[in-house]
Amino acid sequence: MYVVGTRARLRGLKQWLGSTMARDLRIASLDGLRGIAASAVVYAHIEFFYPTINPWIKLNTGDVAVAIFFSLSGFLMALLYGERRFDAADYLVHRFARIYPVYLVSVLFVAALTAIYGNGYVYPIEGMEQLLRHVLLIGSTGVFWSIPPEIQFYLFFLLIWLWLLDPRRYQLVAVATATFLVVDAFFGFPGPGILLTSKLPYFLFGALAGRLFALQKTHPDGTGTGIAVLGLLVFFMLAQGVFPPKTSFWGLTSALTATMIVYFAACNNRLSAAVLGCKPLTFIGRISFSLYLFHLPVIFLGMKAFDGVMPLEAALAVSIVIAYIVAWMCYTLIEDPSRRFVIGLWRTRRQKLPVAAE
Known about the structure:
The protein is mostly helical and about 350 residues long.
């Protein structure tokens, strides 16, 4: 009995240390970068509601934003878990709690809008088959297409995590992953966007950068780094509109660019930190997932409500503001509480599990 009690207290201490480490590793500039990326997705979808937007300011920032999200995900996974004891069950529960509850609510919300407005909605989810595909994380309607490769990477990261903890023992994982990446690149990263094979370099480059960042005792945080990250970010956001690529945006070049932006942002130079780490951007970064999931249906409903009441431009501006407010409400009332609830249930269950005495 004493051993079980002691084990439970030690487990509680490890959980406390784990949450403390997560807070210590929180980098405001990365929150701000996430906020910019989420806002870039909102901007990219304006043309659905304002088709007469001037071509000079109609930029394809959506792909760029998702590329940054993917690289940022790989970076943070390696940074947060690279030194932690391997615990697949705990990891998967935390990843599920972070993504799925609010994702499911947004899917059901879009399905309800489809039932009401039919094809009048921007990206309808039609029929039970499509709904089930999205519930099972294999759907690709609207912004939901980016969630399946994210989930697939979470599963793939379990192998990477083993290698990070013991490179010598699991060197086969590194060899196999590198070989897979080369073959994947040779065939042009095949598959639809919902498959990890089509977006693999973003996650892997991000994970390598995150591991490098964790191992370095000092980081390049001079003024040049601040100028580089802000300059690269502006260039990355504008390049597709100003210099349309002759080939697909998705590939090694954009993956490397997105990863460099994430890494340099994490280095936290005063200049870049003052911009990316400012409170408005970090706030948007905190609610970015809810903003990403809900902005389209909210703007759609706003445009319906304000149709004929005010000019198109004013209706769009007000609808976008409402989308940010609703994203904050969804984060406060759904995303964060559901995450805490699921993790709380998991921890309670773990504490009740019997522990064998050594």
